[in-house]
Amino acid sequence: MTHIDPMSLPAPEPTDPAGLDSLLTADEKAVRDAVRQALDRVAEPYIAEWFEAGEIPNIRELTKELGDLGVLGMHLEGYGCAGMSATEYGLACLELEATDSGLRSLVSVQGSLAMFAIWHWGSEEQKQEWLPRMAAGVAIGCFGLTEPDVGSDPGSMKTVARRDGDDWVLDGRKMWISNAPYADIAVVWAGTAEGIRGFVVPTDTPGFSAPEIKHKMSLRASATGELVLDGVRLPASAMLPEARGLKGPLACLNEARYGIVWGALGAARSSLEVARRYAIDRIQFGRPIAAFQLTQQKLADMSLEYIKGYLLAVHLGRRKDASRLRPEQVSIGKLNNVREALEITRTARTILGANGISLEYPVIRHQNNLESVLTYEGTVEMHTLVLGQLLTGESAFR
């Protein structure tokens, strides 16, 4: 084997000290770069303003842009979906969340929850009716599982669906539903006499409403609402025929959690890079604060955790592309990467000092957003117990 002097190799870039870019194929880099370029044009200049205002004023236009880019349901095949790999989807999630968690949430809920539910569990008629429009960003979807009194234990949901002749009638409430206030279609899970079933509910159905949840301090660039179902009457064809029991919604959640494994890294990368540049430019005591040992320790620790999280995401992506990814392994990724990304944003904030709480910089926005990401799609406690059960063979959920 030919020996190469390591010191003769090009020095690593400070933005990629471990050479992570070499893990990606040319196609994967092309997808990543295309998403980044689009976001720099349609979202990055406005995202702090949207966060501060608590709304995206041109949400329909933005969703159409995301559809044109091909990121809505991009890992699904057919029906106008891009049919890209799991790793490519993950890289897109990373870039989306590097701009803002709210944008990644919009894409995740649309593609990995609402569209995936119809694509995986729906009838051919449901797929033909909704998926092409959702992939194009013309129709927006939401996913109704969480309830006001039921979060981590979805089997205890109180929303019910009862038969009335050939129809189904739904009654209940769902809470903390992303995309709900402007959604055209809701995938709603309800208890029936034959167990938990899923329903495709057009949001203009009488008895359905989605009041927006206000006064959030996190995910402000994402509309969140309640789903209110008061005697919502649906035809028999509205039921997802292939979804029975909790397996239906949990399979969808696993898809969304996989995207979060990557997405959280985007918030971490953005915060780390802002802190690195700030430390180089900020002068105190006659020298850049980057020259002080404590600052370098913070930057080194943040970089290490980002590198480890990225390696884990790539590993899980490769397993998913090979159809070898278990739900427990997704839990490992969600637990680690969100937790460490949140710690990176907190540490980055300390490097920026008082400027760290200003929306002139993205760090406090990422930090606030990740507080929600830490909780949704399975709390830290739930994913900890999933791993604990895997390690011990004992369930500690009850």
TrEMBL record:
GO terms for molecular function: fatty-acyl-CoA binding; flavin adenine dinucleotide binding; glutaryl-CoA dehydrogenase activity. Residues 25-137 form the Acyl-CoA dehydrogenase/oxidase N-terminal domain. Residues 1-21 are annotated as: Disordered. Its EC number is 1.3.8.6. Gene3D superfamilies: Acyl-CoA dehydrogenase/oxidase, N-terminal domain, Butyryl-CoA Dehydrogenase, subunit A, domain 2, Butyryl-CoA Dehydrogenase, subunit A, domain 3. GO terms for biological process: fatty acid beta-oxidation using acyl-CoA dehydrogenase; fatty-acyl-CoA biosynthetic process. Its cofactor is FAD. Residues 244-388 form the Acyl-CoA dehydrogenase/oxidase C-terminal domain. Keywords: FAD, Flavoprotein, Oxidoreductase, Transit peptide. Residues 142-232 form the Acyl-CoA oxidase/dehydrogenase middle domain. Belongs to the acyl-CoA dehydrogenase family. This is Glutaryl-CoA dehydrogenase. It comes from Microbacterium immunditiarum. The lineage of its organism: Bacteria, Bacillati, Actinomycetota, Actinomycetes, Micrococcales.
